[in-house]
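ARCHIVE CARD
CATEGORY: sequence design from structure
SOURCE FIELD: tokenized fold
FIELD CONTENT:
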């Protein structure tokens, strides 16, 4: 939560269903069949907008540091529900949406995260 900035944008130029592990493309593309084969996989698709907190003690520094905790905006499979906690603190979007968002941002872009 709170004020962040985009530290890095990962995946530009990749297909929107590209699968990432450890912020690197695996060379795989997400499919329903692959999803069914690996149902417990933590799917990170399309683009990664890696966030860095701007508020010391809230999302920067110590155990709350968004960057050190690898908090992202990232794509998730179209078959998974949105608005339900399923990730490790990340904000999940549809791959098309995160790719479109990434095209509008540069590193350093300010992001505000709040509860709705």
């Amino acid at each position: 939560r709170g004020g962040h900035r985009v530290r890095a944008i990962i995946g530009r130029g990749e297909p929107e269903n590209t699968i990432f592990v450890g912020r690197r493309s695996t060379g795989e593309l997400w499919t329903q069949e692959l999803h069914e084969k690996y149902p417990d996989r933590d799917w990170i698709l399309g683009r990664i907008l890696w966030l860095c907190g701007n508020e010391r003690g809230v999302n920067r520094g110590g155990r709350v540091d968004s960057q050190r905790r690898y908090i992202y905006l990232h794509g998730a499979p179209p078959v998974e529900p949105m608005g339900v906690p399923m990730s490790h603190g990340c904000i999940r979007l549809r791959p098309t949406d995160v790719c479109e968002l990434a095209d509008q941002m540069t590193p350093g872009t300010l992001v505000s995260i709040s509860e709705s």
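CARD ANNOTATION: The helical segments are 32-37, 95-103. The longest strand covers residues 2-10.
SHELF: design records, drawer C
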